[in-house]
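Researcher: Hi, I'm a grad student and pretty new to this. My advisor asked me to get structures for two proteins we've been looking at. I'm not sure of the right format, so I'll just paste the first sequence and hope you can take it from there.
Model: That works fine. Here's the first sequence with its structure tokens right after it:
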Amino acid sequence: MGMAAERKSKQKRHLPNWNKYWSNFTDLDLLRYKSSNLDETLELLEKEFATKLMSGEQMQLITELEDRISELERIEREEKRSVQGSLFE
């Protein structure tokens, strides 16, 4: 295996499952901030995992970030409905 291929395979091992990574975050405002400041977010993640993220990896982590935001927004809406419903019982 050449040096470039070896380096690339090592990079792959260090990257998380982005769905699991973002599921550790429960602060919707923080996730929205990360989503609206993608350059900063990508730079921080590259530092955290000591690797350069390829465009496909960036797209995957952005998609999973947006999915997590949607999930937390849905949960927030359901909680509000539940609270509103219990007020009228």
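Researcher: Oh nice, that was easy. Here's the second one.
Model: And its structure:
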Amino acid sequence: MKAELLRLAQAHERSLSRVIDVRDRVRLGTATDTALEPLLADEAKKRAEFIYWEPPSASLAVDKLLRLLAHCLAGGLAFDDAELFGIRNQVQRLRSSTPPNQGSEPIEVEDGTRDIG
């Protein structure tokens, strides 16, 4: 399953890189907005595939969400309402699969104080 995560992440990354490249060329005047439209559509499709892939474990889910966030921040992209809804649902499923109180207990730090995260 890690291979599927990497496949989806790399497909989205390649698509996003093409968008960034052409967007930069549009700004420089060496490409037109019409060149960007099909690339944006491909990026949106790859992003949706990545968002809606259901990871089989919590660690892969966290990895997926971090990669997706990094891609979108790097590309200056925004999530639409449907994507946010899908991400929110995955986070809720992830939370419900975590045993109660796991990670919510205070942790004692070096100076003897307790950090509640």
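Researcher: Is there anything I should tell my advisor about the second?
Model: You could mention this: Helices lie at 2-28, 33-52, 58-75, 81-96.
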